[in-house]
Amino acid sequence: MAIQPYEIDGKTFYKIRVVRKSKAKGVSIDKSVDAIATLADAEKEEKKLIAKCERELILADAKGSTFGELLDTWEVEAKKEDKEIFIQEVEKQTVYDYVFLIRRYCDHWMKLEATEIDRATAWMTLDQVNREVSITRRKRLNSAINAVYRWAMVSGRIEGLKEVPTYGYRSTKKEEEKMPEILNLQQIRTFLKVAEESGHKWYPIWALALFTGMRSGELYALKWEAIDFENKLIYVHLNWTNRERYGPTKGAYWRTVPIESSQVLSLLAELKTKGGNGDFVFPRYDSWRKGAQATILREFCIGHGLPSIKFHTLRACFATQLIRMAIAPGKVMSIGGWKDLKTMQRYIRMAGIEVKGATEGLMLLPDRQVMGKVVELFRTE
């Protein structure tokens, strides 16, 4: 690649040559332009020629690409900060999830040419997955496949397809909605009481999770500088994941969490007095860093005869308790960093505020029977 001057009849002209080669398939693109009058024009033309060669190389490389090669390229492009305009904007964690799901359930596609995977192949795969896993997981797999194919089609990496191979697939399986894991107020108090009295090292972590609704990774990344004791606020802006290490929160934006309860302020003050964790509020437990927080919590609960819950349940408990205290759902979403109203609706249903008071006026028994029968109905002796 170079700009070369040359002369004709004593006048200087410029010639450009750009060569691009593919490491994967040995494809070579070689283009040149000559008779350019000025160096400035030659430099502008060189940039255009480079872009054109790289574009043609991508298309040439993509011809006959296997689905596995296509997936690898999509993963690289989707993780870039400066993404192609054709790439659907997704979070890095979503990219990891998509690639994992595709490799987990579509492994037999990897050596097939991307254009060979037709509707019949895709539908059969989704139908098989549909029998093995939840509808939610199958829908996410569908979204992952669509993201890769749409990018490949729009960017010109594959040709000849009018629609993604999963288009039109509909599952006939209906998934039973399960009751979410949750603790009521008495269970929360019992849980914290047992954890504190047993001297469990995770007690302050669990307590702060229940007081703030913060995610496990946000608590792990929490520093003292993010706690404003004067205004009774925590500024949540960091998160920890095994893959990304320290980074932004799941929603990629910071939020404020009020800590107005005297109990949570007392807990934080005690932790501050003990110190020993440097800049961080909590110790750097290896088990936590390796993602074992859910296992540790379940083992503790089972060992003490408490309902078995995962770490994320503490966040659900926080939301449900606030809603039961008549805190507006919109405010709860803001504090906890929830974007999905559908998730919040589940907590509203758990809290029962939509139906509370609906049956208070029911008077069905004859007046003479009301008191005696009601007492008998609820007698526990």
What does this structure look like?
By secondary structure, the protein is mostly helical. The protein folds into 3 domains: 2-62; 67-154, no CATH class; 185-351, Intergrase catalytic core (hpI Integrase, Chain A), CATH 1.10.443.10. It has helices at residues 39-62, 67-79, 92-105, 119-132, 135-154, 185-197, 203-212, 216-220, 262-274, 286-289, 293-303, 311-324, 329-336, 341-351, 367-377, and strands at 2-8, 11-21, 28-36, 227-228, 233-236, 239-241, 245-247, 255-258. The strands form 3 sheets. It has a 3-stranded antiparallel β-sheet with strand order 1-2-3, with helices on one face. Strand 1 (2-8) and strand 2 (11-21) form a beta hairpin. Helix 2 runs antiparallel to helix 3 (92-105) and helix 7 (203-212) runs antiparallel to helix 9 (262-274). The N and C termini lie far apart (93 Å). The mean pLDDT is 84.
- Count of DSSP helices? 15
Helix content: 40-55%
Second-tier CATH architecture of the largest domain = Orthogonal Bundle
Query: Which class best fits the helix and strand makeup?
Result: mainly alpha
CATH class of the largest domain: Mainly Alpha
What is the residue-averaged pLDDT? 84
Q: For the largest beta sheet, what order do the strands appear in spatially?
A: 1-2-3
Distance between the termini: 93 Å
Order of helices and strands: EEEHHHHHHHHEEEEEHHHHHHH
Total individual domains: 3
Q: Would you report the number of β strands?
A: 8
| Rg value | 30 Å
Gross geometry: elongated
The CATH superfamily name of the largest domain is Intergrase catalytic core
Low-pLDDT runs = none
Examine the coordinates and then state which fold CATH places here, giving the name of the CATH topology of the largest domain: hpI Integrase, Chain A
Biggest sheet details: 3 strands, antiparallel
Strand content: 5-15%
